[in-house]
């Protein structure tokens, strides 16, 4: 608990933006005190004008307790702004939107090739530039992976392996052997999951693609 508290305090005070919130609070308090010192009586009269017809108010109401009350109520009203100053950051829309639109979830095997099979599964997904994803459309893997090898040359395998596609997966894709590709990639996922979690996994073997039926339809 105390370790977590220390970490959070370190995160707050290590950011220069955090001190803007403290400066804003100090500025608000100072302005309110100056305003009440200069024209506090008029402020009190304005507040009590509806009560003076029924009650007789004696003594000086402008004291430390009332000033603290006014300051606290003002800070409560401004709390969302103060929180934004402490925890928020300026948002660069161009940078933020470019990051959002940078990648798409790309189906390695286009779902349109096998409409009767649910291909919206993790072993059929990789992150791809949105523009490239649109350009690929519904091409067969053997077509666009061959183009990828030609375009990127020696770097192609590095790019593919960063997306959990090894040489066995690539050979299966170049041959349009969809079921073999799923089996190979499933083993890659299984190995990394077991390595990260330290637990044995049992992959679901229910995903089957009838390639012959699709070829007959064509």
What does this structure look like?
The protein is mainly alpha-helical. The chain folds into two domains: 2-88, no CATH class; 98-217, no CATH class. It is built from eleven helices and two strands. It has helices at 2-13, 16-48, 64-77, 79-87, 93-100, 130-136, 141-152, 155-161, 167-174, 178-197, 211-217, and strands at 103-107, 125-129. The protein has a two-stranded antiparallel ribbon with strand order 1-2. Helix 2 crosses helix 3, helix 2 (16-48) runs antiparallel to helix 4 (79-87) and helix 9 runs antiparallel to helix 10 (178-197).
Explain the layout of strands and helices.
Layout: H1 2-13, H2 16-48, H3 64-77, H4 79-87, H5 93-100, E1 103-107, E2 125-129, H6 130-136, H7 141-152, H8 155-161, H9 167-174, H10 178-197, H11 211-217
Antiparallel strand pairs: 1-2
Helix pairs in contact: 2-3, 2-4, 9-10
Largest sheet: 2 strands, antiparallel
Mean pLDDT level: 76
Q: What's the total helix number?
A: 11
> Could you name the ranges where pLDDT drops below 50 across 5 or more consecutive residues?
211-218
Share of helix, binned = 55-70%
The tally of strands reads 2
**Integer tally of domains:** 2
| Biggest sheet: strand arrangement | 1-2
Shape: elongated
